[in-house]
Design brief:
single chain; 254 residues; alpha/beta; Rossmann fold; 5-stranded parallel beta sheet; 3-stranded parallel beta sheet; 9 helices; 39% helix; binds guanine
Length: 254
């Protein structure tokens, strides 16, 4: 079984994420290989590599680390990955399956958030769930997964009016906007569950989330830290998807 990770260029954050993914594979005994391509790689060169990996039976999962350099169209690349090897669940075929609720893979970060909620004994059914951010990677699929668990879901974004009024209603608040310490205590209802997907690097190089942890933890019933909250769950879900991909392709063997 194997995961292939492709990284293009030298974005430092992407390098850290890719290293964590490879380390997790090693810890679990999953084969992994990395293609580290230069920043001036053409779109056609990248597509040729993806097509080759699609045909390689020893490769069960293909992950192209995002963001890609500006001259490469991310959508074209994602659409070229074989949906059966799409361990990020970014391919439109997998996105559509998630919408319907009959899927093979879930996108890693929203799936990790759902695991955290479940393992903390929190029942989503009937709760006011507010998702901050509408990205294809987190916000939109996160809303869908909360809806599948019978949450009453609101997605907020940069054009949302009276944001604080909306976030204050949340029993479960998921922040995925990429703005350091954006969610402050006055935006959170007493006793809410607050999940911080943000990973932001401050000028002094320290990491912080989208939530002001020190202040919000005084009002929240449960809250995830950054680092050490959602991030490790994302990696765990990637490992799960890689195993699922291998089983779907080969069946279960001893
Ligand atoms: N960049 C930031 N998060 C992700 C992710 O989950 N998958 C990929 N491929 N790239 C990312």
């Amino acid at each position: 079984m194997g995961l292939t990770v492709i990284i293009v260029g030298d974005d430092p954050a992407s390098r850290v994420y890719v290293n964590s993914k490879k380390k997790a594979c090693e810890a679990l005994g999953i084969n992994s290989q990395e293609f580290a391509l230069p920043a001036d790689t053409t779109e056609e060169e990248l597509l040729t590599l993806v097509r080759k990996l699609n045909e390689d039976d020893s490769v069960n999962g293909i992950l192209v680390q995002l963001p890609l350099p500006k001259h490469i169209n991310e959508e074209t690349v994602i659409n070229t990955i074989d949906p059966k090897k799409d361990v990020d669940a970014f391919h439109p075929q997998n996105v559509g399956k998630i919408m319907i609720g009959n899927y093979d893979f879930l996108p890693c970060t929203p799936a990790g958030v759902m695991e955290l909620i479940k393992e903390s004994g929190i029942d989503v059914s009937g709760k006011e769930c507010v998702v901050l951010g509408r990205s294809n990677i987190v916000g939109k699929p996160q809303a869908m997964l909360l809806l599948h668990q019978n949450g009453t879901v609101t997605i907020c974004h940069s054009r949302t009016q009276n944001l604080k009024e909306v976030t204050k209603r949340a029993d479960i608040l998921v922040a995925a906007i990429g703005k350091p310490n954006f969610v402050t205590a006055d935006m959170v209802k007493e006793g809410a569950v607050v999940i911080d997907v943000g990973i932001n690097r401050l000028p002094d190089k320290t990491l912080c989330g989208d939530v002001d942890f020190n202040e919000v933890s005084k009002v929240a019933a449960a809250i995830t830290p950054v680092p050490g909250g959602v991030g490790p769950m994302t990696i765990a879900m990637l490992m799960k998807n890689t195993v699922t991909a291998a089983i779907c392709q080969n069946g279960l063997k001893d």
